[in-house]
């Protein structure tokens, strides 16, 4: 219970309206969500299996999709030609109806959207909330920063601006520290080397299976001082600004960095700042 309110009540009152307004929601296509849980195999296998999920019966161009976000159920009807919902799912349905995408292609994109774009953020939010509840001193610093930066916000329904979000340095540091200890994707899908190659000084023969253990990397004493200690301060430079640390890669790094990184970070900062203003978390 948060400040006398249940978590579901806070989500429904403050967050769900914004999700509906901006067309953001956690997506499950009927007949798909249960299958994905049992299909955590190699990346190639996952990609192939997404095209063989049970097909949703489509007797007309109109059908229902079940949206869920933290226990709150929202049912929308998406149909080609109905542009009330300005979201990616509507774009996919429209592209399928106009024969720009096959059904399997639309389904694959929707599955990736659900797993990579929503479940990871929800998992990360859960980890940060756990850290805040377990470490009251960190929670109090976050609350002090939120109240200082958002002091002009009389109502929790007054969403922070982009400029204000950028000023929440300690909150961002707390999010990064939480994602360091509890990455949403602790081990990346296995990839197979297509040819003989070298990674630094390590030879990789063709056919080798390679994976990245993000969980181990982000707790490695070679890169982190007191790696098991929860310390948001490690992310702040002498000027109190958030700094990048090279061994942190929950969104991966390089040219294939997750394109949703900035969106996810801003989304989490908005949700957590709103919770910080209206709630007190207890483990």
From TrEMBL:
Binding-site residues for heme, renumbered to this chain: 258
Pfam family, one: p450
Top-level lineage group: Eukaryota
InterPro entries linked: Cyt_P450, Cyt_P450_E_grp-I, Cyt_P450_sf, Cytochrome_P450_Monoox
This protein's UniProt keywords: Heme, Iron, Metal-binding, Monooxygenase, Oxidoreductase
Cofactor(s) for this UniProt protein: heme
Molecular function per GO: heme binding; iron ion binding; monooxygenase activity; oxidoreductase activity, acting on paired donors, with incorporation or reduction of molecular oxygen
Record carries keyword Nucleotide-binding: no
Keyword Glycoprotein: no
Protein family per UniProt: Belongs to the cytochrome P450 family.
Protein name (Swiss-Prot/TrEMBL): Cytochrome P450
Source organism of the structure: Basidiobolus meristosporus CBS 931.73
Phylogenetic placement of the source organism: Eukaryota, Fungi, Fungi incertae sedis, Zoopagomycota, Entomophthoromycotina
